[in-house]
Design a protein that fits this description.
Length: about 240
């Protein structure tokens, strides 16, 4: 694992965006795995700036998202589909048909998971961007007794629902289930770019890097990946 130290959130965002931009410049039709949440927002802003300045072309890029809440329509402003449009896609020249995300309104869960896994097979990711959950989740693969292989429907843990509830009216209104790319899908990316910011993530980041590989800390499996770039700020690295 290569560790890139950033001063703070803004510095982390700049460094992460530079890595994503380099990937797209070197391979204009890159398949990039994308994440939602607070962590990547700054990097997405940086990518938008690079595009607006004429330095980054998304016309051949394919974006494949990690996860989506079950039960939210695409036009719900809390859906991850909406998030991606709002925070990145609407501001760059990526083609709508090149943006992929699980369908939160799928009728058949198993069928949706199968569909997404087939899609991942046809779109091997050159670079997978990841944030880190407070409990060590990646995508929405929550702590568990086993590593989830393929795309799956997860029941979110209380700590995740609590963390996500900051974007909803209440805990009750916060979705309790989500479709997520599985650990196998995440690990199949050629390069993984893990971004972590803030003191609240320091302990779990320490466990991820130095602790045992265990499904109780799903992100610890990244120790087995050959090409992980961790970009983290001083607060997140404070226990390392
Ligand atoms: C989002 C995702 C999650 C988040 C994680 C951290 O697509 O898959 O794993 O990366 O919950 O969220 P933030 O960045 O809000 O701390």
């Amino acid at each position: 694992m290569r560790i890139i130290r950033a001063k703070d959130y803004n510095d982390m965002s700049r460094k992460a965006a530079n890595i994503i931009a380099a990937q797209i410049t070197l391979k204009p039709d890159s398949v990039i795995g994308l994440a939602t949440g607070s962590t990547p927002i700054g990097a997405y802003k940086e990518l938008i700036n690079k595009h607006k300045e004429g330095n980054l072309d998304f016309s051949e890029v394919r974006g494949v998202n990690l996860d989506e809440y079950k039960g939210l329509t695409k036009d719900n402003d809390q859906s991850y589909d909406y998030f991606m449009k709002d925070n990145l896609y609407n501001h760059v020249n990526i083609k709508a048909e090149n943006c992929y995300i699980p369908n939160g309104m799928a009728e058949d869960d198993d069928e949706e998971c199968r569909r997404y896994d087939e899609l991942l097979e046809t779109l091997p990711r050159d670079l997978q961007l990841l944030g880190l959950g407070l409990n060590g989740h990646i995508g929405f693969n929550e702590p568990s007794d086993v590593f989830a292989g393929g795309t799956n429907l997860v029941q979110l843990t209380d700590s995740t629902i609590e963390a996500n509830s900051r974007f909803f009216e209440s805990y009750e209104a916060t979705p309790k289930f989500a479709y997520t790319m599985g650990i196998k899908g995440i690990m199949s990316a050629r390069t993984i770019l893990l971004c972590v910011s803030g003191k609240s993530k320091a302990q779990i980041l320490h466990d991820l890097v130095n602790g045992p590989i265990t499904p109780q800390v799903p992100a610890s499996i990244l120790q087995l990946h050959k090409d992980v770039i961790l970009v983290a700020d001083e607060d997140a690295l404070s226990l390392m």
